[in-house]
From TrEMBL:
<dbReference type="GO" id="GO:0005524">
    <property type="term" value="F:ATP binding"/>
</dbReference>
<dbReference type="GO" id="GO:0017168">
    <property type="term" value="F:5-oxoprolinase (ATP-hydrolyzing) activity"/>
</dbReference>
<keyword id="KW-0547">Nucleotide-binding</keyword>
<keyword id="KW-0067">ATP-binding</keyword>
<dbReference type="GO" id="GO:0005975">
    <property type="term" value="P:carbohydrate metabolic process"/>
</dbReference>
<comment type="subunit">
    <text>Forms a complex composed of PxpA, PxpB and PxpC.</text>
</comment>
<comment type="similarity">
    <text>Belongs to the LamB/PxpA family.</text>
</comment>
<protein>
    <recommendedName>
        <fullName>5-oxoprolinase subunit A</fullName>
        <ecNumber>3.5.2.9</ecNumber>
    </recommendedName>
</protein>
<keyword id="KW-0378">Hydrolase</keyword>
<comment type="function">
    <text>Catalyzes the cleavage of 5-oxoproline to form L-glutamate coupled to the hydrolysis of ATP to ADP and inorganic phosphate.</text>
</comment>
<dbReference type="Pfam" id="PF03746">
    <property type="entry name" value="LamB_YcsF"/>
</dbReference>
<dbReference type="InterPro" id="IPR005501">
    <property type="entry name" value="LamB/YcsF/PxpA-like"/>
</dbReference>
<dbReference type="InterPro" id="IPR011330">
    <property type="entry name" value="Glyco_hydro/deAcase_b/a-brl"/>
</dbReference>
Length: 252
């Protein structure tokens, strides 16, 4: 199993999360590309830390929305969205090369992530951008979403992920952040929940129903309160149960 987290999101004097601590825990790092968060110097530092720890790096591409942290819905034209995603991947590739690593996958962020999980037009735009930059890049997508099939149809390798710190609806979709109980904070309960996922392929929905989730990566949001402790407990819980932890992409 892979454990990933959204990192590189600090901006100037605004500090977001503890990248150094998270990089000692996770196996993959979704690194901001400057559109929703992150400044070049901070991104470069995070990439250097990831390289030093042997953590796989992915481009955490987003809508151009610094004020809203990339969590506001947008409707860019196809030409805009394709160019925006190419621009962000390219920027991170340059910084990654300077840090002694490389970008191996793409994970869209926030509103873009949720939109392309079900919106065919924007999904095709993101896939077109990935193929234009590097067809070998893997796309990380929401487990159970139509995006997985769309990516496979375009020849893009795709890996499904589950969210450790998010509640699920009965249909396998994420509970909206606007609703109470959408974000989970009990580190021990979350660790137990992720072990259940790995061992059974199921999670318990917000209404108490079992939900089938096929995932090869577990995400812990780096900006959530107590994120480091939560990730640490998940890692320890899985290792204690004999689960091997490694990036979903090969490091060469």
């Amino acid at each position: 199993m892979d454990i990933n987290s959204d990192l590189g999101e600090s901006f100037g004097a605004w500090r977001m999360g503890d990248d150094a601590a998270m990089l000692d825990i996770v196996t993959s790092a979704n690194v901001a590309c400057g559109f929703h968060a992150g400044d070049p110097a901070g991104i470069l530092q995070t990439l250097r830390q990831a390289a030093a720890r042997g953590v796989a790096v992915g481009a955490h591409v987003a809508y151009p929305d610094l004020v809203g942290f990339g969590r506001r819905n947008m409707d860019p034209t196809s030409s805009e969205l394709v160019a925006d995603v190419i621009y962000q991947i390219g920027a991170l590739q340059g910084l990654a090369a300077a840090a002694g690593t490389r970008v191996r996958y793409v994970k869209p962020h926030g509103a873009l992530y949720n939109t392309i999980a079900h919106d065919a037009r924007q999904a095709e735009d993101v896939l077109t951008a990935i193929l234009a930059v590097d067809p070998s890049l893997t796309l990380m997508a929401l487990a159970g979403s139509p995006l997985i099939g769309w990516a496979q149809a375009r020849g893009v390798r795709v890996v499904a992920e589950a969210f450790a710190d998010r509640a699920y609806n009965d249909d396998g979709s994420l509970v909206s952040r606007r609703l109470p109980g959408a974000v989970l904070h009990d580190a021990q309960a979350v660790a137990d929940r992720m072990l259940q996922l790995v061992q059974t392929g199921r999670l318990t929905s917000i209404t108490g129903q079992p939900v089938a989730i096929q995932a090869d990566s577990i995400c812990v949001h780096g900006d959530s309160p107590g994120a480091v402790d939560m990730a640490r407990q998940i890692r320890a819980h899985l290792l204690q149960a004999g689960v091997a932890l490694q990036p979903f992409v090969a490091l060469d």
